From TrEMBL:
Pfam families: adh_short_C2. Keywords: Oxidoreductase. Residues 7-173 form the Ketoreductase domain. It comes from Pontibacter ramchanderi. GO terms for molecular function: oxidoreductase activity. This is NAD(P)-dependent dehydrogenase (Short-subunit alcohol dehydrogenase family). Belongs to the short-chain dehydrogenases/reductases (SDR) family.
Length: 254
């Protein structure tokens, strides 16, 4: 079960955190993995790990917010069976202290980046007779979290785009789902703690860990396991769904 042999999988932001864990597990399950990543050095590290484990991987340096770059990369890859829209950036702030520039930046990467890759993938999947898409949403797509105005806007959009794409491409045999993690311990979390709570890193890490009723953050590999299921043929009956992976955050935080 859960084999991806013969499938071409594109993982955006596969140089770090959740995307890296997804790239590693997809390669282990037999996929030809294409890491689409802004940071070349990070992509090289993922490639080295996959190759050391005997997997098949190609890396593409690309800013997903740039449609010209995305189209060029998808053209070079040639076909796609699985797309994981994972590349994303964080922002801390409420409505009033979120600047226009911050809002635009979050939109460009988290929303337009996903749109660019969805658009490039869907036509190719249709030509091939089908495909599977997984988008990285978040608990903020579903519940209110303090000081996440722009980020929530972007992840709400991811959830809505997932439903829209799932609906429009049903007859093309393209499945589209999303996952909504609570906090996952990745450089993304470490980065925003360091940036937004300097000097209070340990205290904030502890505090954020405890906001999951289960008492800790997720591991990237735990999200990758769910991604593998949803992108495998075993999940062929699942489309237009969002899966929280949140240690009880959405339903048990009361
Ligand atoms: N870590 C969490 O707690 C958490 C929770 C819920 C959802 N998510 C979502 O999961 C996804 C991955 O998060 P992570 O924690 O692994 O982050 P991360 O920062 O560890 O990795 C993100 C990767 O995306 C790449 N990237 C950023 N901007 C890019 C761009 N414009 N073009 C191409 N690549 C780009 C980065 O270089 C990095 O390698 C994000 O969409 C994030 O919003 C994360």
């Amino acid at each position: 079960m859960f084999k991806l042999t013969g499938k071409k999988a594109i993982v955006t932001g596969g140089g770090s955190g959740i995307g890296k864990a997804i790239a590693l597990v997809f390669a282990r399950q037999g996929a030809e993995v294409h890491v689409v990543e802004l940071h070349e050095a990070a992509a090289y590290e993922t490639r080295a790990e996959i190759e050391a484990a005997g997997g098949l991987v190609f890396i593409h340096t690309c800013d997903v917010s740039r449609q010209d770059q995305v189209n060029k990369v998808f053209e070079a890859i040639g076909g796609v069976d699985i797309l994981v829209n994972n590349a994303g950036i964080a922002h801390v702030g409420n409505l009033e202290n979120t600047s226009e520039a911050d809002l635009d930046r979050i939109y460009q990467v988290n929303v337009k980046g996903a749109y660019n890759c969805l658009q490039a993938a869907v036509s190719r999947m249709r030509e091939q007779g089908g495909g599977t898409i997984l988008n990285l949403a978040s608990i903020v797509s579903h519940v209110g979290i303090p000081d996440r105005f722009a980020y929530s806007m972007s992840k709400g959009a991811i959830h809505a785009m997932t439903l829209s794409v799932a609906k429009d491409y049903l007859s093309d045999n393209i499945r589209c789902n999303s996952v909504s993690p609570a906090r996952v311990h990745t450089p993304f979390v470490d980065g925003f703690i360091a940036k937004n709570y300097p000097g209070k890193e340990d205290e904030m890490f502890e505090k954020l860990s405890k906001t999951q009723p289960i008492g800790r953050m997720a591991r990237p590999e735990e999200v990758a396991a769910l991604a593998l299921f949803l992108c495998s043929d075993e999940a062929a009956f699942i489309t237009g769904c969002d899966y929280p992976i949140d240690g009880g955050f959405i339903k048990l935080n009361n």
